[in-house]
Amino acid sequence: MVEVVGNGENEEFAKLRELVEAGESGYPSVLSTPRATALGTPYLQSPGVALIAKPQVNVGNIAGFLGGFAPELQFMQYLDDPTELPPGADLCKAAGQLCYASFAPKRTLNADAERYFANIREHGHGSVLEHANFTFVFYGVSRSVTHELVRHRAGVGVSQISQRYVSGRVLRFVERPEYQDDKELHAAFERRIDAAAAEYSRIAERLLELQKSGSEILSADARTDLRKKVQQAARSVLPNETEAPLVVTANARAWRHILEMRANPHAETEIRALAFRAYLCLRVVDPILFGDYRITALPDGTHGVETDTPKV
Ligand SMILES: Cc1cc2nc3c(=O)[nH]c(=O)nc-3n(C[C@H](O)[C@H](O)[C@H](O)COP(=O)(O)OP(=O)(O)OC[C@H]3O[C@@H](n4cnc5c(N)ncnc54)[C@H](O)[C@@H]3O)c2cc1C
Protein backbone atom coordinates (compact mmCIF):
# COMPACT_ATOMS: atom_id res chain seq x y z
CA MET A 1 0.00 0.00 0.00
CA VAL A 2 1.47 3.34 -1.06
CA GLU A 3 0.55 6.38 0.98
CA VAL A 4 0.54 9.72 -0.82
CA VAL A 5 2.08 12.26 1.47
CA GLY A 6 2.40 15.43 -0.50
CA ASN A 7 2.82 17.32 -3.73
CA GLY A 8 5.95 19.14 -2.78
CA GLU A 9 4.23 21.96 -0.93
CA ASN A 10 3.43 20.34 2.38
CA GLU A 11 5.23 19.41 5.60
CA GLU A 12 6.55 16.13 4.21
CA PHE A 13 8.42 17.92 1.43
CA ALA A 14 9.66 20.53 3.88
CA LYS A 15 11.01 17.71 6.10
CA LEU A 16 12.63 15.81 3.24
CA ARG A 17 13.96 19.02 1.75
CA GLU A 18 16.22 19.26 4.80
CA LEU A 19 18.24 16.46 3.23
CA VAL A 20 19.16 18.89 0.48
CA GLU A 21 22.34 20.90 1.06
CA ALA A 22 23.18 24.32 -0.33
CA GLY A 23 19.86 24.69 -2.12
CA GLU A 24 20.37 28.43 -1.71
CA SER A 25 23.50 28.34 -3.92
CA GLY A 26 21.24 27.27 -6.75
CA TYR A 27 23.10 23.96 -7.06
CA PRO A 28 21.58 21.60 -4.51
CA SER A 29 23.04 18.31 -3.39
CA VAL A 30 22.26 15.44 -1.06
CA LEU A 31 25.47 14.25 0.54
CA SER A 32 26.71 10.77 1.39
CA THR A 33 29.59 10.32 3.80
CA PRO A 34 32.14 7.55 3.23
CA ARG A 35 32.99 5.09 6.02
CA ALA A 36 35.60 2.36 6.23
CA THR A 37 35.92 -1.16 7.57
CA ALA A 38 38.43 -1.84 10.38
CA LEU A 39 40.88 -2.86 7.63
CA GLY A 40 40.33 0.48 5.90
CA THR A 41 38.17 -0.56 2.93
CA PRO A 42 36.02 2.49 2.11
CA TYR A 43 32.27 2.23 1.53
CA LEU A 44 29.10 4.32 1.41
CA GLN A 45 25.62 3.57 2.66
CA SER A 46 23.50 5.88 0.54
CA PRO A 47 23.60 7.62 -2.82
CA GLY A 48 25.14 11.08 -3.00
CA VAL A 49 23.75 13.44 -5.62
CA ALA A 50 25.11 16.84 -6.58
CA LEU A 51 23.64 19.07 -9.26
CA ILE A 52 26.54 20.61 -11.17
CA ALA A 53 24.85 22.22 -14.16
CA LYS A 54 21.50 23.71 -15.10
CA PRO A 55 20.33 26.03 -17.88
CA GLN A 56 21.65 29.56 -18.11
CA VAL A 57 19.08 31.59 -19.98
CA ASN A 58 18.76 35.03 -21.57
CA VAL A 59 15.36 35.19 -23.19
CA GLY A 60 15.92 38.94 -23.59
CA ASN A 61 18.30 38.15 -26.40
CA ILE A 62 15.36 37.55 -28.74
CA ALA A 63 14.69 41.31 -28.76
CA GLY A 64 16.08 41.53 -32.30
CA PHE A 65 13.73 38.78 -33.45
CA LEU A 66 10.64 40.19 -31.72
CA GLY A 67 11.44 43.74 -32.85
CA GLY A 68 11.28 42.65 -36.48
CA PHE A 69 7.51 42.16 -36.37
CA ALA A 70 4.87 44.87 -36.89
CA PRO A 71 4.81 47.15 -33.81
CA GLU A 72 1.02 46.81 -33.43
CA LEU A 73 1.54 43.12 -32.54
CA GLN A 74 3.30 44.38 -29.38
CA PHE A 75 5.68 41.42 -29.37
CA MET A 76 8.39 43.42 -27.59
CA GLN A 77 6.14 43.46 -24.55
CA TYR A 78 7.08 39.78 -24.16
CA LEU A 79 10.33 40.89 -22.58
CA ASP A 80 8.63 42.98 -19.89
CA ASP A 81 7.14 40.10 -17.93
CA PRO A 82 7.75 41.02 -14.27
CA THR A 83 7.70 37.44 -12.93
CA GLU A 84 11.04 35.66 -12.87
CA LEU A 85 11.01 31.92 -13.53
CA PRO A 86 13.61 29.26 -12.74
CA PRO A 87 15.92 29.11 -15.78
CA GLY A 88 14.68 25.71 -16.98
CA ALA A 89 11.04 26.74 -16.91
CA ASP A 90 11.93 30.13 -18.44
CA LEU A 91 13.68 28.44 -21.36
CA CYS A 92 11.02 25.80 -22.00
CA LYS A 93 8.20 28.34 -21.78
CA ALA A 94 9.91 30.61 -24.31
CA ALA A 95 10.43 27.61 -26.61
CA GLY A 96 6.80 26.56 -26.25
CA GLN A 97 5.48 30.07 -26.81
CA LEU A 98 7.53 30.48 -29.95
CA CYS A 99 5.56 27.61 -31.48
CA TYR A 100 2.39 29.70 -31.58
CA ALA A 101 4.12 33.11 -31.70
CA SER A 102 2.53 33.72 -28.29
CA PHE A 103 4.44 36.95 -27.63
CA ALA A 104 1.56 39.43 -27.52
CA PRO A 105 0.04 40.82 -24.29
CA LYS A 106 -2.74 38.19 -24.28
CA ARG A 107 -0.28 35.29 -23.97
CA THR A 108 0.11 33.26 -20.74
CA LEU A 109 2.30 35.36 -18.47
CA ASN A 110 5.07 33.93 -16.30
CA ALA A 111 2.82 34.28 -13.26
CA ASP A 112 0.72 31.51 -14.81
CA ALA A 113 3.65 29.29 -15.71
CA GLU A 114 2.39 26.41 -13.56
CA ARG A 115 -0.87 26.35 -15.50
CA TYR A 116 1.07 26.69 -18.77
CA PHE A 117 3.16 23.59 -17.99
CA ALA A 118 0.15 21.63 -16.70
CA ASN A 119 -1.39 22.24 -20.10
CA ILE A 120 1.82 21.13 -21.86
CA ARG A 121 1.82 17.91 -19.82
CA GLU A 122 -1.87 17.22 -20.30
CA HIS A 123 -1.55 17.59 -24.07
CA GLY A 124 1.65 15.52 -24.18
CA HIS A 125 3.69 18.32 -25.72
CA GLY A 126 6.76 17.10 -23.86
CA SER A 127 9.25 18.07 -26.53
CA VAL A 128 9.45 21.64 -25.20
CA LEU A 129 10.85 20.16 -21.96
CA GLU A 130 13.83 18.86 -23.90
CA HIS A 131 15.47 22.29 -23.97
CA ALA A 132 16.36 22.36 -20.27
CA ASN A 133 19.26 20.13 -19.27
CA PHE A 134 20.34 19.30 -15.73
CA THR A 135 23.59 17.55 -14.86
CA PHE A 136 24.29 15.56 -11.69
CA VAL A 137 27.26 13.79 -10.20
CA PHE A 138 25.98 10.56 -8.64
CA TYR A 139 28.23 8.72 -6.18
CA GLY A 140 27.68 6.13 -3.48
CA VAL A 141 25.93 4.13 -6.19
CA SER A 142 26.72 0.50 -6.90
CA ARG A 143 27.58 -0.98 -10.24
CA SER A 144 24.24 -2.83 -10.22
CA VAL A 145 22.30 0.43 -9.86
CA THR A 146 24.25 2.22 -12.55
CA HIS A 147 23.76 -0.72 -14.89
CA GLU A 148 20.01 -0.08 -14.55
CA LEU A 149 20.33 3.69 -14.79
CA VAL A 150 22.30 3.65 -18.04
CA ARG A 151 19.43 1.82 -19.75
CA HIS A 152 17.84 5.27 -20.09
CA ARG A 153 19.04 6.46 -23.46
CA ALA A 154 16.70 9.09 -24.85
CA GLY A 155 17.89 12.61 -23.94
CA VAL A 156 20.55 11.30 -21.56
CA GLY A 157 24.36 11.63 -21.52
CA VAL A 158 26.56 9.56 -19.19
CA SER A 159 30.24 9.58 -18.22
CA GLN A 160 31.18 6.87 -15.76
CA ILE A 161 34.32 5.96 -13.86
CA SER A 162 36.48 3.54 -15.85
CA GLN A 163 37.40 0.43 -13.95
CA ARG A 164 40.02 -0.12 -16.66
CA TYR A 165 41.70 3.23 -16.09
CA VAL A 166 41.52 3.92 -12.36
CA SER A 167 43.56 1.92 -9.89
CA GLY A 168 42.53 0.09 -6.70
CA ARG A 169 43.34 3.26 -4.72
CA VAL A 170 39.94 4.76 -5.59
CA LEU A 171 38.06 1.54 -5.07
CA ARG A 172 35.00 2.00 -2.81
CA PHE A 173 31.91 -0.10 -2.18
CA VAL A 174 28.22 0.47 -1.49
CA GLU A 175 26.29 -1.27 1.27
CA ARG A 176 22.69 -2.13 0.47
CA PRO A 177 20.09 -0.66 2.85
CA GLU A 178 18.86 -4.17 3.77
CA TYR A 179 22.25 -5.03 5.31
CA GLN A 180 22.84 -1.88 7.31
CA ASP A 181 20.77 -2.59 10.41
CA ASP A 182 21.44 -6.30 10.65
CA LYS A 183 24.63 -7.20 12.51
CA GLU A 184 25.17 -10.43 10.60
CA LEU A 185 24.53 -9.02 7.12
CA HIS A 186 26.54 -5.90 7.88
CA ALA A 187 29.51 -7.93 9.16
CA ALA A 188 29.29 -10.21 6.11
CA PHE A 189 29.29 -7.13 3.86
CA GLU A 190 32.41 -5.74 5.52
CA ARG A 191 34.17 -9.12 5.30
CA ARG A 192 33.18 -9.44 1.66
CA ILE A 193 34.44 -6.02 0.57
CA ASP A 194 37.68 -6.45 2.54
CA ALA A 195 38.19 -9.74 0.72
CA ALA A 196 37.24 -8.25 -2.67
CA ALA A 197 39.64 -5.33 -2.22
CA ALA A 198 42.43 -7.68 -1.12
CA GLU A 199 41.79 -10.11 -3.96
CA TYR A 200 41.78 -7.23 -6.46
CA SER A 201 45.20 -6.05 -5.18
CA ARG A 202 46.62 -9.59 -5.20
CA ILE A 203 45.50 -10.17 -8.78
CA ALA A 204 46.71 -6.74 -9.93
CA GLU A 205 50.14 -7.37 -8.34
CA ARG A 206 50.45 -10.80 -9.94
CA LEU A 207 49.37 -9.46 -13.35
CA LEU A 208 51.94 -6.68 -13.00
CA GLU A 209 54.65 -9.25 -12.27
CA LEU A 210 53.63 -11.23 -15.35
CA GLN A 211 53.57 -8.06 -17.42
CA LYS A 212 57.09 -7.14 -16.27
CA SER A 213 58.34 -10.60 -17.10
CA GLY A 214 57.16 -10.18 -20.71
CA SER A 215 53.69 -11.77 -20.85
CA GLU A 216 52.40 -11.25 -24.40
CA ILE A 217 48.72 -10.91 -23.53
CA LEU A 218 49.53 -8.14 -21.01
CA SER A 219 51.82 -6.19 -23.32
CA ALA A 220 51.07 -2.73 -24.75
CA ASP A 221 52.85 0.19 -26.39
CA ALA A 222 51.81 3.03 -24.08
CA ARG A 223 52.22 3.22 -20.29
CA THR A 224 48.52 3.91 -19.69
CA ASP A 225 47.64 0.95 -21.89
CA LEU A 226 49.90 -1.25 -19.78
CA ARG A 227 48.00 -0.16 -16.68
CA LYS A 228 44.67 -0.80 -18.41
CA LYS A 229 45.76 -4.31 -19.34
CA VAL A 230 46.25 -5.07 -15.65
CA GLN A 231 43.15 -3.33 -14.34
CA GLN A 232 40.77 -4.60 -17.00
CA ALA A 233 41.66 -8.14 -15.92
CA ALA A 234 41.78 -7.51 -12.16
CA ARG A 235 38.32 -5.88 -12.13
CA SER A 236 36.73 -9.22 -12.96
CA VAL A 237 36.65 -10.01 -9.23
CA LEU A 238 34.85 -6.81 -8.27
CA PRO A 239 31.29 -7.40 -7.06
CA ASN A 240 28.08 -5.58 -7.97
CA GLU A 241 28.60 -3.74 -4.66
CA THR A 242 31.49 -1.76 -6.16
CA GLU A 243 30.84 1.97 -6.31
CA ALA A 244 30.55 3.29 -9.87
CA PRO A 245 30.26 7.10 -9.78
CA LEU A 246 28.99 8.86 -12.86
CA VAL A 247 27.97 12.20 -14.33
CA VAL A 248 24.49 12.15 -15.83
CA THR A 249 23.06 14.92 -17.98
CA ALA A 250 19.45 14.68 -19.07
CA ASN A 251 16.85 17.07 -20.29
CA ALA A 252 13.78 17.77 -18.18
CA ARG A 253 11.60 15.43 -20.24
CA ALA A 254 14.08 12.59 -19.77
CA TRP A 255 14.53 13.33 -16.04
CA ARG A 256 10.78 13.20 -15.59
CA HIS A 257 10.65 9.78 -17.23
CA ILE A 258 13.58 8.54 -15.13
CA LEU A 259 11.96 9.79 -11.90
CA GLU A 260 8.66 8.16 -12.83
CA MET A 261 10.29 4.80 -13.64
CA ARG A 262 12.81 4.77 -10.80
CA ALA A 263 11.29 6.74 -7.90
CA ASN A 264 8.50 4.21 -8.17
CA PRO A 265 7.30 1.39 -5.87
CA HIS A 266 8.27 -1.23 -8.50
CA ALA A 267 11.82 0.05 -8.80
CA GLU A 268 14.74 -1.50 -6.96
CA THR A 269 15.33 0.06 -3.49
CA GLU A 270 18.78 1.52 -4.12
CA ILE A 271 17.90 3.12 -7.46
CA ARG A 272 14.69 4.47 -5.90
CA ALA A 273 16.73 6.19 -3.19
CA LEU A 274 18.95 7.69 -5.89
CA ALA A 275 16.03 8.83 -8.04
CA PHE A 276 14.22 10.30 -5.05
CA ARG A 277 17.29 12.33 -4.07
CA ALA A 278 17.63 13.58 -7.64
CA TYR A 279 13.94 14.50 -7.51
CA LEU A 280 14.45 16.53 -4.31
CA CYS A 281 17.23 18.53 -5.98
CA LEU A 282 15.27 19.04 -9.20
CA ARG A 283 12.20 20.08 -7.21
CA VAL A 284 14.30 22.66 -5.33
CA VAL A 285 15.99 23.99 -8.45
CA ASP A 286 12.90 24.08 -10.67
CA PRO A 287 9.57 23.87 -8.83
CA ILE A 288 7.71 24.67 -12.06
CA LEU A 289 9.04 21.82 -14.22
CA PHE A 290 9.01 19.28 -11.36
CA GLY A 291 6.33 20.72 -9.07
CA ASP A 292 3.47 18.41 -10.08
CA TYR A 293 4.94 15.31 -8.39
CA ARG A 294 3.33 14.00 -5.23
CA ILE A 295 5.62 12.29 -2.74
CA THR A 296 4.64 8.76 -1.83
CA ALA A 297 5.69 7.00 1.38
CA LEU A 298 6.38 3.30 0.90
CA PRO A 299 5.98 0.62 3.57
CA ASP A 300 9.76 0.02 3.65
CA GLY A 301 10.34 3.60 4.82
CA THR A 302 11.53 4.86 1.42
CA HIS A 303 9.87 7.48 -0.75
CA GLY A 304 8.83 7.76 -4.33
CA VAL A 305 6.98 10.20 -6.56
CA GLU A 306 3.87 10.08 -8.72
CA THR A 307 2.06 12.45 -11.04
CA ASP A 308 -1.25 12.62 -12.90
CA THR A 309 0.63 13.42 -16.11
CA PRO A 310 3.37 10.79 -16.56
CA LYS A 311 5.56 10.33 -19.61
CA VAL A 312 5.00 13.64 -21.36
C1 LIG B 1 10.92 -1.79 -12.38
C2 LIG B 1 11.75 -2.03 -13.62
C3 LIG B 1 12.09 -3.33 -13.97
C4 LIG B 1 12.87 -3.58 -15.11
N1 LIG B 1 13.20 -4.86 -15.43
C5 LIG B 1 13.96 -5.10 -16.53
C6 LIG B 1 14.36 -6.43 -16.90
O1 LIG B 1 14.00 -7.39 -16.23
N2 LIG B 1 15.15 -6.61 -17.97
C7 LIG B 1 15.54 -5.56 -18.77
O2 LIG B 1 16.25 -5.77 -19.75
N3 LIG B 1 15.20 -4.29 -18.44
C8 LIG B 1 14.42 -4.04 -17.36
N4 LIG B 1 14.09 -2.75 -17.05
C9 LIG B 1 14.59 -1.67 -17.89
C10 LIG B 1 13.51 -1.14 -18.86
O3 LIG B 1 13.07 -2.17 -19.71
C11 LIG B 1 14.07 0.01 -19.71
O4 LIG B 1 15.13 -0.44 -20.51
C12 LIG B 1 14.57 1.15 -18.87
O5 LIG B 1 13.66 1.47 -17.85
C13 LIG B 1 14.80 2.37 -19.77
O6 LIG B 1 13.56 2.98 -20.04
P1 LIG B 1 13.01 3.28 -21.49
O7 LIG B 1 13.00 2.05 -22.33
O8 LIG B 1 11.71 3.98 -21.31
O9 LIG B 1 14.15 4.15 -22.17
P2 LIG B 1 14.55 5.68 -22.16
O10 LIG B 1 15.85 5.75 -22.84
O11 LIG B 1 14.45 6.27 -20.80
O12 LIG B 1 13.55 6.33 -23.17
C14 LIG B 1 12.46 7.17 -22.85
C15 LIG B 1 11.38 6.88 -23.89
O13 LIG B 1 11.83 7.23 -25.18
C16 LIG B 1 11.31 6.29 -26.13
N5 LIG B 1 12.43 5.54 -26.73
C17 LIG B 1 13.69 5.43 -26.24
N6 LIG B 1 14.44 4.68 -27.05
C18 LIG B 1 13.64 4.31 -28.07
C19 LIG B 1 13.83 3.49 -29.22
N7 LIG B 1 15.01 2.95 -29.48
N8 LIG B 1 12.79 3.31 -30.04
C20 LIG B 1 11.59 3.86 -29.79
N9 LIG B 1 11.33 4.64 -28.71
C21 LIG B 1 12.34 4.86 -27.87
C22 LIG B 1 10.38 5.36 -25.36
O14 LIG B 1 9.08 5.88 -25.39
C23 LIG B 1 10.97 5.43 -23.97
O15 LIG B 1 10.05 5.06 -22.95
C24 LIG B 1 13.31 -2.49 -15.92
C25 LIG B 1 12.96 -1.18 -15.54
C26 LIG B 1 12.19 -0.95 -14.42
C27 LIG B 1 11.83 0.48 -14.06
Written description of the protein model:
The protein is α+β, with helices and mostly antiparallel strands and 312 residues long. It has three domains: 1-54 and 134-161 and 244-312, Alpha-Beta Plaits (2-Layer Sandwich); 59-131, no CATH class; 176-240, no CATH class. 37% of the residues lie in helices and 14% in strands. The chain has ten helices and eleven strands. The protein has helices at residues 11-17, 63-66, 87-99, 113-122, 143-149, 177-180, 183-212, 223-234, 252-262, 269-285, and strands spanning 3-6, 29-30, 35-36, 42-44, 48-53, 133-139, 156-160, 173-174, 246-251, 294-297, 303-306. It has a five-stranded antiparallel β-sheet with strand order 2-5-6-9-7. A hairpin with a 5-residue loop joins strand 10 and strand 11 (303-306). Helix 7 (183-212) crosses helix 8 (223-234). The protein is elongated, with a radius of gyration of 24 Å. The protein starts with a strand and ends in a 6-residue tail after the last strand. The site of flavin-adenine dinucleotide has 8 residues, from helix 9.
Question: Which features does this protein show?
Answer:
312 residues, alpha+beta, Alpha-Beta Plaits, 3 domains, five-stranded antiparallel sheet, three-stranded antiparallel sheet, 11 strands, elongated, binds flavin-adenine dinucleotide
Largest sheet: 5 strands, antiparallel
Which molecules are bound in this entry? flavin-adenine dinucleotide
Structural class: alpha+beta
CATH architectural arrangement of the largest domain = 2-Layer Sandwich
User: Rg from C-alpha positions?
Assistant: 24 Å
**Count of alpha and pi helical runs:** 10
Strand content: 5-15%
Span between termini: 26 Å
Which fold name fills CATH's third level, the topology of the largest domain? Alpha-Beta Plaits
Supply the CATH class of the largest domain: Alpha Beta
Apparent shape: elongated
Order of strands in the sheet with most strands: 2-5-6-9-7
pLDDT below 50 for ≥5 consecutive residues: which ranges? none
Elements, N to C (H/E): EHEEEEHHHEHEEHHHEHHEE
Q: What proportion of the residues is helical, as a percent range?
A: 25-40%
**Mean pLDDT over the full residue set:** 93
Number of domains: 3
